[in-house]
């Protein structure tokens, strides 16, 4: 995704159907990024492209289909379970800030307390402790200038501090300023994997209106997707009564 989970770049579909039951691996290989964290829970989601605009999202043996379109402002229009949602995202040092309609959440990276990272661009003004000093949790260890404001940086846990940038360095978001030899590794809270799946009963991304013409257009889109070389789908969708 620029989002951590998915890749919505153009996809190289085949235009000649094969007589074999499987397609070349690159046609329907899922793309998986670093699993995002929400309140300490890690969500390992894969996305498989099934048509030019359709993706199947899989989480712990459950799945939901989504139609994704790119908007002019760089956001995404996602249709899931018959409803449309406008999605915008922004990469930050701590993760991805995700806005869905009017709700915002931060999909945090899996942080390592032994790596002290700059969360925004700025300048490292000075060290507040000596290199190799033992420090406690929440101890100010450096001062940085960000947007003409001076801010102290605090250690997340206790340990021995080792600086990686000298005073006066220009910092970029994500730079590792220092490393911390943590006193008690057991005290560090680690993320846990999600053990549940998507909600039960989610329907198709688009609601197909009743009627012969609408059913025909929907079925024709499915046939075109199969002929384009995407994943095979159940033949039951092509059943018709004449």
In short:
Helix content is 8%, strand content 37%.
Please provide a written account of the structure.
- With 242 residues, this protein is mainly β.
- Helices cover 8% and strands 37% of the residues.
- It has a seven-stranded antiparallel sheet with strand order 3-4-5-6-7-8-9, with no helix packed on it. It has a four-stranded antiparallel sheet with strand order 10-17-15-12, with no helix packed on it.
- Strand 6 and strand 7 form a beta hairpin.
- It is elongated and about 75 Å long.
- The two termini are 43 Å apart.
Portion of residues in beta strands equals 35-45%
Q: Fraction of residues in helices?
A: under 10%
Oligomer: single chain
Backbone shape: elongated
Low-confidence stretches: 1-33, 232-242
Keywords:
242 residues, mainly beta, OB fold (Dihydrolipoamide Acetyltransferase, E2P), seven-stranded antiparallel sheet, four-stranded antiparallel sheet, 2 helices, 18 strands, 8% helix, elongated, disordered N terminus, disordered C terminus
